[in-house]
């Protein structure tokens, strides 16, 4: 009988407040997905490539999970308190029938355990399938091929999820016991008769609060845009305090003059059920302005973290495509080796990697570092350009042809420019001089910039930043004196042939370079000082991709993890509060029905209230996030070009799906609650 009563109570609670159970289920699901990463097959594959990044992802996930558990605990405790408040009359009836407080506490304990077990079972089941999707998604980010896909159930992830949520539900049980012990029978039985005491404020006072809130927000925005996100000091915390206070005053002021403003427009106020809707919404803001402030700040965190993580993701991926245009590049410095560039393919073949078989197209080119005949002044501060990297036009065209680009032609006595990948902080003196129209005196000849020959992006794959290169006509290379050249570098660059096993080719190339190629090159001769190890390097697109994608996946995972939790938390709080209002308004809607108000009009009034309550915090959070993301983008842009459109689009889609789903579920739940009662 006791278990039957608990089960009926849980069933009724889930029917009336399904959002509470869905939120529990989703929390368990997300928690398991990110805490099962360690045992997923994709992480095992990544660990073989770069174990450091995998270890960093897992360690940071553990740290973030503690924070997420605190957020979820707060949400669950809030929802549980909300449910108990709605059941005060029921609990009072139990006491009136002779059930003791200890027995009621045991009943609530059984209900909590029942709900917790259901949420754990269904949440872990859903999380199991989503974890497989996350593994496949991660593999696609790293362009990995999987020979055989298999499902992985992480017992470690299950253990963490059960442990954290057991602690959370234990806190819920303790909270229930305390709340039941503090309640008196008369207060429980008269819970639905207790009216809220609303203090109306004058329009003038509300207007002052509104203006003050806007001023505080404007000051906080100005400090953020001027100082940026990376300066953490007292002013930074003051800026956060001003933003929070401004948000609080904004919502607090709405309860005072929003209704009065609408009342001044008689046609709008008395149209349909607008008078009823506005009064209900005004009372809701007056009661919950503090929670709306918290929800707005949570939405700000959700939007900002998600957008920035996606922005970093697209920026890092764009950097890989920009800095690694070819599958592989082998570099040999002639200063360290007595070597001819024509022998580079033969040396690679003797080492065990035949370029003719493994590479579809490749080119062997040379880049020179030369001393200019005459320094080029760069600015009024006295800086000069004394050296520059140069390359022949034919070598330049050979590299661009690997990517299907058409060959370029230089006019007589002119030079072109190939941009490097060095950040702006390096100064880029060659590009500055070239764009200013300076004349380059090299090898006794003077060359003017040719604007038609200008190349952006890396010419070949390199792990280090590349400097700008001056492109000279082929005949000009013959005039460059030997003593002018202080560094000569040979490059063998190309793409893997179609049809070959690229992973096997990649592994073979690295083994050859690490174990054999050094010996082959040293047999041909090296400088006496024994520094040959510094004159030979290998860069591959896959290695750079894996190295940079570690940062990408770390930021993306943690950003989506936190962003989703914050979004779910804020939407669930709003949904629970609106369902509470729907339950309070049952009597009022019953009167409207008796007065002849059509069901369609009643449903529309509910939808309008839910819409206003959901999208006012979202609107202010979007304004906050625009300023915050602008400051964050200034930091992200330092590592590469930021794709603001992509980050905004992905964030908007996530908000549309998650927040929109809660909005629709709240509308449906509120309508059903009013109709059934």
Q: Give the low-confidence spans.
A: 193-198, 527-533
Shape: elongated
- How much β-strand is present in the residues? 5-15%
Head-to-tail CA distance between termini: 27 Å
Rg over CA atoms, rounded to whole Å, is 34 Å
**Coarse structural class:** alpha+beta
Task: Summarize the amount of helix as a percent range.
Answer: 55-70%
Placed side by side, the strands forming the largest sheet appear as 5-6-4-7-3-2-8-1-9
> How many separate domains make up the residues?
3
Number of strands: 9
**Mean of the pLDDT scores?**
76
Q: How is the biggest beta sheet arranged?
A: 9 strands, mixed
- The helix tally amounts to 22
Organism: Pseudoflavonifractor gallinarum
Family: Belongs to the ABC-4 integral membrane protein family.
Transmembrane segments: 17-37, 57-83, 104-134, 162-181, 202-223, 235-259, 289-312, 553-576, 610-632, 644-665
Subcellular location: Cell membrane
Key traits:
single chain, 677 residues, alpha+beta, 3 domains, nine-stranded mixed sheet, 67% helix, elongated
Topology:
Elements (H helix, E strand, L loop, with lengths): L1 H15 L1 H18 L5 H9 L1 H36 L1 H9 L4 H41 L13 H28 L2 H5 L13 H25 L6 H31 L1 H4 L4 H50 L4 E6 L10 H8 L3 H4 E19 L6 E9 H9 L12 E5 L10 H7 L4 E3 L2 E11 L13 E4 L1 H6 L5 E12 L5 H23 L11 E5 H44 L1 H9 L4 H38 L7 H33 L1
Helix pairs in contact: 1-2, 1-6, 2-4, 2-6, 2-7, 2-19, 3-4, 4-7, 4-19, 6-7, 9-10, 10-12, 12-19, 12-21, 12-22, 13-18, 19-21, 19-22, 21-22
């Amino acid at each position: 009988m006791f278990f039957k009563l608990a089960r009926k109570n849980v069933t009724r609670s889930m029917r009336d407040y399904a959002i509470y159970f869905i939120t529990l289920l989703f929390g368990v699901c997300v928690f398991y997905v990110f805490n099962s990463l360690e045992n997923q097959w994709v992480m095992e594959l990544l660990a073989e490539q770069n174990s450091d990044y995998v270890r960093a992802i897992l360690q940071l996930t553990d740290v973030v999970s503690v924070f997420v558990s605190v957020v979820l605990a707060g949400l669950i405790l809030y929802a549980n308190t909300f449910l108990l408040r709605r059941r005060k009359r029921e609990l009072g009836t139990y006491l009136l029938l002779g059930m003791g407080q200890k027995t009621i506490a045991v009943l609530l304990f059984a209900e909590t355990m029942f709900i917790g077990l259901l949420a754990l079972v269904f949440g872990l089941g859903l999380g199991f399938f989503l974890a497989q999707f996350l593994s496949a998604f991660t593999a696609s980010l790293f362009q990995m091929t999987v020979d055989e896909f298999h499902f992985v159930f992480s017992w470690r992830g299950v253990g963490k999820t059960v442990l954290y949520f057991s602690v959370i539900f234990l806190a819920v049980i303790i909270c229930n016991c305390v709340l039941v012990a503090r309640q008196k029978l008369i207060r429980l039985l008269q819970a639905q008769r207790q009216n809220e005491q609303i203090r109306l404020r004058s329009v003038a006072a509300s207007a002052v609060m509104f203006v003050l809130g806007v001023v505080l927000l404007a000051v906080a925005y100005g400090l953020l845009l001027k100082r940026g996100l990376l300066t953490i000091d007292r002013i930074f915390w003051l800026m956060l305090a001003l933003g929070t206070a401004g948000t609080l005053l904004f919502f607090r002021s709405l309860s005072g003059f929003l209704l009065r403003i609408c009342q001044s427009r008689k046609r709008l106020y008395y149209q349909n059920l607008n008078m009823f809707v506005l009064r209900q919404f005004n009372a809701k803001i007056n009661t919950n302005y503090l929670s709306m402030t918290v929800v707005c700040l949570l939405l700000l965190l959700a939007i900002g973290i998600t957008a920035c993580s996606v922005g970093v993701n697209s920026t890092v991926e764009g950097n890989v495509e920009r800095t690694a245009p070819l599958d592989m590049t082998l570099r040999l410095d002639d200063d360290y080796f007595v070597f001819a560039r024509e022998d580079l393919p033969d040396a690679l073949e003797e080492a065990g990697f035949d370029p003719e078989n493994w590479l579809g197209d490749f080119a062997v080119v040379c880049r020179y570092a030369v001393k200019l005949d005459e320094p080029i002044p760069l600015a009024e501060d006295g800086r000069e350009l004394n050296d520059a990297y140069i390359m022949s036009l034919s070598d330049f065209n050979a590299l661009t042809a690997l990517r299907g680009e058409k060959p370029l032609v230089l006019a007589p006595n002119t030079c072109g420019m190939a941009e490097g990948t060095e950040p702006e902080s390096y100064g880029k003196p060659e590009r500055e001089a070239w764009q200013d129209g300076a004349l380059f005196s090299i090898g006794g000849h003077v060359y003017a910039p040719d604007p038609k020959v200008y190349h952006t992006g890396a010419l070949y794959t390199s792990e280090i930043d590349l400097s700008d290169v001056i492109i000279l006509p082929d005949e000009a290379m013959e005039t460059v004196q030997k003593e002018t050249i202080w560094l000569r570098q040979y490059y063998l660059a190309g793409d893997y042939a179609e049809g070959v096993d690229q992973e096997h080719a990649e592994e073979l190339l690295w083994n050859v370079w690490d174990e054999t190629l050094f010996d082959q090159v040293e047999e041909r001769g090296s400088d006496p000082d024994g520094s040959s190890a510094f004159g030979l390097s290998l860069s591959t697109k896959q290695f750079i991709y894996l190295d940079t994608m570690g940062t990408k996946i770390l930021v993306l995972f943690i950003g989506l993890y936190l962003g989703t939790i914050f979004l779910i938390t804020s939407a669930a709080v709003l949904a629970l509060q609106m369902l509470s209002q729907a339950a309070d308004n049952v009597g009022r809607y019953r009167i409207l029905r008796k007065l002849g108000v059509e069901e369609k009009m009643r449903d529309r009034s509910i939808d309008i209230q839910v819409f206003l309550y959901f999208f006012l915090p979202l609107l202010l959070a979007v304004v906050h996030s625009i300023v915050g993301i602008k400051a964050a983008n200034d930091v992200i842009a330092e590592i590469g070009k930021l794709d603001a459109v992509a980050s905004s689009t992905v964030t908007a889609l996530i908000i549309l799906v998650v927040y929109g789903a809660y909005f629709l579920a709240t509308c449906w739940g509120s309508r059903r609650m009013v109709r059934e009662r």
